Amino acid sequence: MKKSNDKKETVVKKPIAKFSPKRKKENRQYTIKRLQFLDQPENQRCFIDGCNNRADTIEHTAGRWGSNYLDESTWKPCCNFHNLELERNSELSEKYQVSKISGKQKIIKR
Ligand SMILES: [Zn+2]
Q1: What is the distance in A from the centroid of ligand 1 to the CA of 82?
Q2: Residue 65 belongs to some domain of the structure
Q3: Where is this chain compositionally biased, Basic and acidic residues type (predicted)?
Q4: What integer is the mean pLDDT of 29-40?
Q5: Residue 69 within a domain
């Protein structure tokens, strides 16, 4: 008895959108969550020691990728100055940013 197994499956490839619907939704959520976060009484000031500036940005201490983007537990309130400074100054970022590999605080070498 012969079985016919040669039915061809047609794979329809979807074109890749520039921004996936998921990311678009995340962006909207982020805009709202960000405002709510910065509205909390404990998030009014920059999280950097000794800085008393008003926080008007979010520092993603564990990066912006994946679920961290919307995960407030990885967010810190940050002033504009230190937000830029954390991008430019590797010493400062080592001190305050969570390691992307372990998810834990980076070890500070002295
Ligand atoms: Zn600051």
Answers
A1: 5
A2: yes
A3: 1-12
A4: 97
A5: yes
What separation in Å is there between the alpha carbon of 56 and the centre of ligand 1? 10
Q: What is the pTM of this model?
A: 0.71
Q: How many domains does the chain have?
A: 1
For residue 23 the two structure tokens come to 């990311």
**CB-based contacts of 33, cutoff 8 Å, min separation 6:** 70, 72
3 part of a folded domain: no
Domain membership of residue 33 (yes or no) is: no
Q: Do residues 59 and 76 make contact, with C-beta atoms less than 8 angstroms apart?
A: yes
Task: Tell me the two tokens of residue 60.
Answer: 């993603």
Residue 44 CA to ligand 1 center (angstroms) comes to 11
Ligand 1 centroid, distance to 6 Cα (angstroms): 65
pLDDT at residue 78 greater than cutoff 70: yes
CA of 107 to the centre of ligand 1 (A): 22
